[in-house]
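From the pipeline queue, job 12 of 40. The input is one protein chain; the requested action is below.

Action: predict structure.
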Amino acid sequence: MFEVKRVQDISVVGVHGELSRNNVKVFEEVLTSLANCLHNNVVLNFEGLKHLDYSLVRRIAERIIQFKCDGGDLKMAAANGYIRSILRAMGLEEEIYESVEEALLSFVECEYHGEYQ
């Protein structure tokens, strides 16, 4: 259901199948574990996600805020049109990157722009 890979200092969490009330506790535990280990830069890879329970969008938004408050970021990538429409319909305005690679590069761009502003 969930897999975590590290790409330098960024954790990529693969979300597969369905994200619903039945497995949200495990999803929350994965994100909490990353935060506890100070892995504050995270990409949610939705490429394998087939269904998202609309009631969980708020939890994702709360996690984005948490990671930003902890000095990192939580980004979403590779969501299909169905998942994007659920996120948008529930008011989540965060950018959804076309690919995991684009999301990873955005961390590098943020660091670059942050250093020289």
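Job complete. The chain has one domain: 2-116.
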